[in-house]
């Protein structure tokens, strides 16, 4: 493994030789090694050759540089880069078992990460990041088609509500540094606080898009969990307080809208490699599939329940709330073995 280490001459000139290289587990999109630089642990990461490898590398480097503005730190220090080989070198931070109330510190750290780009003038790194890609009309069509397949009547006005929702999400105050995949496993719990890693999907957008992960069971993640109500409220309060301390004022945007946006996205039912390849909501009536802690039907049933509760008092999403509740009841009646996601965070995969 050490012979494969892409520690180039440019990196050696800046950082010295890399010793004791050990290959670590990683996604198919990257190769990762643990090394020592002058006796200090570090991590070497290389984006694997693919159609989007250059883009993923550029986004990760830009996001790490932008996040380095935050003190105390919310990311490992970026020690060096070699764009020609798509290699970055990071300080190695030791992850320890998260505490039972880990979501509180996670939410506060997420707010501080998001705020890194809010009060600073735009620079080259910010311009390297795309805008957050929200749901589109095709997501609405797929969601409503699923209701039809399951013989659940769509309330009058629900289609118009969803169209208006897309507009609100598209125009929500942006500029926050979004991680793109802020899942358990991409958060390192250290004695000095939480550090986020793996910014290949980073973008700029509204921070509540990712705060919604706590309510929606981490919609892009393998480890869907149901955060207990008291912890959820404490975590959301911690996010608000950390945002206000970093950026001033309350976090902009609408958390209920953010949750509803995640509900209708079929791509949030599958791993990243399968996103954009099929209408995954259309698959659900005939097949179910496992990914991480739950199946696809469990994921959707859970999210339907969350949105049904959140929209109960929302005039502008009342039809969607009724539809979500009815869809959930139909799913539970048709597939009675569906259970709620686990409440405890699993061991990192």
Give an overview in words.
The chain is an alpha+beta fold and 349 residues long. Helix content is 40%, strand content 15%. Strands 1-2-3-5-4 form a five-stranded antiparallel beta sheet. The protein has a two-stranded antiparallel sheet with strand order 6-9. A two-stranded antiparallel sheet has the order 7-8. A hairpin with a 4-residue loop joins strand 4 (78-82) and strand 5. Helix 3 runs parallel beside helix 9, helix 6 crosses helix 10 (255-263) and helix 12 (296-310) packs antiparallel against helix 13. The radius of gyration is 21 Å and the shape is globular. The two termini are 22 Å apart. The model has no long low-confidence stretch (mean pLDDT 94).
N-to-C order of helices and strands: HEEEHEEHHHHEEEEHHHHHEEHH
> What is the tally of helical segments?
13
The secondary-structure class comes to alpha+beta
Mean pLDDT: 94
Walk across the major sheet and give the strand order.
1-2-3-5-4
Q: From the alpha-carbon coordinates, what is the Rg to the nearest angstrom?
A: 21 Å
What's the shape? globular
Please give the alpha-carbon distance between the first and last residues: 22 Å
The fraction of residues assigned to DSSP E strands is 5-15%
Largest sheet entry: 5 strands, antiparallel
Number of strands: 11
Question: What share of residues is helical?
Answer: 25-40%
> Which consecutive residue ranges, at least 5 long each, have pLDDT under 50?
none
In short:
By secondary structure, this protein is of the alpha+beta class. It has 13 helices and eleven strands. The strands form four sheets. It has a five-stranded antiparallel sheet with strand order 1-2-3-5-4. The protein has a two-stranded antiparallel ribbon with strand order 6-9.
């Amino acid at each position: 493994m050490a012979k494969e280490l892409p520690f180039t001459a440019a990196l050696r000139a800046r950082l010295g030789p890399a010793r004791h290289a050990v290959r670590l587990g990683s996604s198919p999109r990257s190769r990762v090694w643990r090394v020592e630089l002058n006796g200090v642990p570090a991590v070497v990461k290389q984006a694997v050759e693919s159609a989007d490898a250059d883009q993923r590398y550029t986004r990760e480097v830009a996001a790490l540089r932008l996040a380095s503005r935050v003190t105390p730190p919310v990311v490992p220090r970026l020690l060096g880069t070699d764009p020609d080989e798509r290699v970055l070198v990071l300080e190695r931070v030791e992850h320890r078992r998260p505490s039972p109330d880990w979501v509180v510190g996670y939410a506060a750290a997420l707010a501080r990460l998001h705020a890194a780009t809010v009060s600073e003038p735009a620079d080259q790194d910010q311009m390297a990041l795309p805008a957050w890609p929200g749901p589109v009309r095709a997501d609405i069509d797929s969601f409503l088609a699923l209701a039809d397949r399951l013989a659940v009547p769509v309330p009058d006005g629900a289609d118009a509500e969803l169209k208006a929702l897309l507009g609100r999400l598209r125009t929500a105050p942006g500029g926050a540094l979004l991680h793109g995949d802020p899942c358990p496993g991409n958060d390192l719990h250290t004695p000095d606080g939480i550090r986020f890693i793996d910014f290949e999907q980073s973008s700029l957008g509204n921070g509540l898009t990712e705060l919604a992960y706590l309510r929606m069971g981490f919609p892009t993640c393998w480890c869907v969990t149901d955060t207990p109500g008291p912890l959820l409220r404490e975590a959301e309060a911690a996010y608000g307080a950390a945002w206000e301390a970093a950026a001033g004022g309350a976090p902009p945007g609408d958390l209920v809208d953010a949750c509803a946006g995640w509900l209708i996205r079929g791509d949030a039912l599958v791993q990243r490699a399968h996103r954009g390849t099929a209408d995954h909501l259309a698959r659900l009536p005939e097949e179910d599939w496992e990914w991480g802690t739950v199946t696809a039907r469990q994921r959707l049933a859970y999210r339907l329940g969350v949105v049904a509760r959140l929209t109960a008092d929302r005039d502008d999403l009342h039809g969607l709330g009724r539809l979500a509740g009815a869809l959930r009841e139909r799913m539970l009646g048709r597939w009675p073995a569906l259970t709620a996601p686990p409440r405890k965070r699993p061991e990192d995969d």
